[in-house]
């Protein structure tokens, strides 16, 4: 990748800082995931390359993967806010309470694909009604493939999951899990796999790319494919760094970010998901698919999920209504 440095050592930073031009800005871009993660390969690295290509010696983009600047996925927001990391891939579900408004995308039976979820999530952010982003700069918002339920013992309906224990990635998913009569357990992906392997949980709400990246298929035997929303991702920049950049650099960063990067991310996740599903089916993974009648029934049976989310979030009604309107506009081609 031309002019993008993929580094993990302090020595690399020192060398870059010492050897670079005085006007050059070093931008450390980090993720707690490995470099091979879908989001790194298909969202973050392409953005870094495009920015570096256009700005040349004005910036030096340096990648740090696998948690080398902070391994805990639950700490990523604080690390970028406090300047330990300049740019970070942050999961709102792992940052309890900080980005609750954006987690409207996790409500079940709403978005139907990663690209739809990504574009709608970015447009929702652009409305300015979301809170929690005041202390950082947002480069883009995107979502992975739609969340499904991966299980040790495959199930053919949501009703069959009553009494089970399921991993969730945050409060919104927990509301849904409680509504179907199951017990939510907020865990990271690796922790969820370990818990499934020990038999302490029965399954996890997760996208197919997440299952693949973190090895979840090793402890799961099947999935119930029902659209349970899409967990949002955000690419955040330290606010002080952002404000120190020239208008030219800011414009380039955002021209390669924003909705275009969101769409790229969603499309990549959808494409890769299709291949993962085909591969798992060939390996004997058991998949039960909810049809349109099932989904309509679930929307009626579990409508309390929307009511509770709205009640538990300040300005929840406006956010929910705006979100659903943006979905309708997207599907109408607007």
How do the helices and strands line up, and which of them pair or pack?
Blueprint: E1 5-6, H1 10-19, E2 25-30, H2 38-55, E3 59-64, H3 76-81, E4 87-90, H4 114-126, E5 136-142, E6 148-151, E7 165-168, H5 171-179, E8 183-186, H6 189-198, E9 203-206, H7 208-213, E10 222-225, E11 233-238, H8 239-244, H9 247-255, H10 258-282, E12 286-289, H11 292-301, H12 304-312, H13 316-331
Parallel strand pairs: 1-3, 2-3, 2-4, 7-8, 7-9, 10-12
Antiparallel strand pairs: 4-11, 5-11, 6-9, 6-10
Summarize the structure.
With 334 residues, the chain is an alpha/beta fold. Helix content is 44%, strand content 16%.
Features:
334 residues, alpha/beta, D-Maltodextrin-Binding Protein, domain 2, 2 domains, 6-stranded mixed sheet, 12 strands, 44% helix, globular
Major sheet strand order:
1-3-2-4-11-5
Number of helices: 13
For the record, what is the CATH homologous superfamily label of the largest domain? Bacterial extracellular solute-binding protein, family 7
Total E-strand runs: 12
CATH architecture assignment of the largest domain: 3-Layer(aba) Sandwich
- Radius of gyration, whole Å: 20 Å
What's the number of domains? 2
- Average per-residue pLDDT, rounded, comes to 93
Helix and strand string, N-terminal first? EHEHEHEHEEEHEHEHEEHHHEHHH
CATH topology value of the largest domain:
D-Maltodextrin-Binding Protein, domain 2
The major β-sheet equals: 6 strands, mixed
Structural class: alpha/beta
CATH classification class of the largest domain: Alpha Beta
Give the low-pLDDT segments: 7-22
Helix % is 40-55%
Shape: globular
Query: What share of the residues does DSSP label as strand, in percent?
Result: 15-25%
* End-to-end distance: 35 Å
């Amino acid at each position: 990748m031309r002019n993008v440095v993929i580094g993990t050592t302090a020595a690399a930073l020192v060398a870059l800082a010492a050897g670079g031009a005085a006007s050059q800005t070093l931008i450390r871009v980090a993720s707690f995931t490995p470099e091979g993660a879908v989001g790194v390969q298909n969202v973050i690295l392409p953005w870094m390359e495009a920015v570096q290509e256009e700005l040349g010696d004005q910036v030096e983009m340096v990648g740090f993967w696998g948690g080398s600047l902070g391994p805990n996925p639950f700490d990523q927001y604080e690390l970028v806010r406090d300047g330990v990391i300049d740019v970070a891939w942050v999961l709102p579900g792992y940052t309890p309470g900080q980005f609750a408004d954006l987690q409207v995308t996790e409500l079940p039976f709403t978005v139907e694909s990663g690209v739809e979820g990504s574009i709608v999530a970015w447009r929702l952010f652009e409305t300015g009604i979301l809170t929690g982003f005041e202390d950082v700069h947002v480069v883009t918002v995107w979502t992975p493939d739609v969340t499904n339920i991966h299980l040790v013992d495959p199930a053919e309906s949501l009703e069959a999951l009553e009494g089970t224990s399921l991993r969730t990635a945050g409060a919104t998913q927990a509301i849904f899990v409680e509504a179907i009569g199951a017990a939510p357990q907020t865990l990271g992906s690796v922790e969820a796999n370990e818990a499934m392997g020990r038999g302490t949980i029965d399954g996890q709400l997760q996208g197919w790319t997440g299952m693949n990246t973190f090895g979840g298929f090793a402890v799961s035997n099947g999935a119930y494919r029902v659209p349970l929303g899409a967990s949002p991702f955000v690419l955040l920049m330290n606010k002080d760094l952002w404000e120190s950049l020239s208008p030219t650099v800011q414009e380039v960063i955002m021209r390669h970010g924003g909705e275009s990067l969101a769409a790229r991310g969603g499309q990549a996740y959808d494409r890769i998901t299709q291949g993962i599903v085909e591969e798992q089916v060939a390996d004997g993974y058991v998949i039960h698919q909810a049809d349109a009648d099932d989904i309509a029934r679930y929307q009626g049976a579990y409508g309390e999920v929307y009511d509770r989310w709205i009640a538990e979030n300040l300005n929840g009604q406006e956010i929910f209504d705006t979100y659903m309107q943006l979905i309708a506009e997207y599907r109408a081609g607007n």
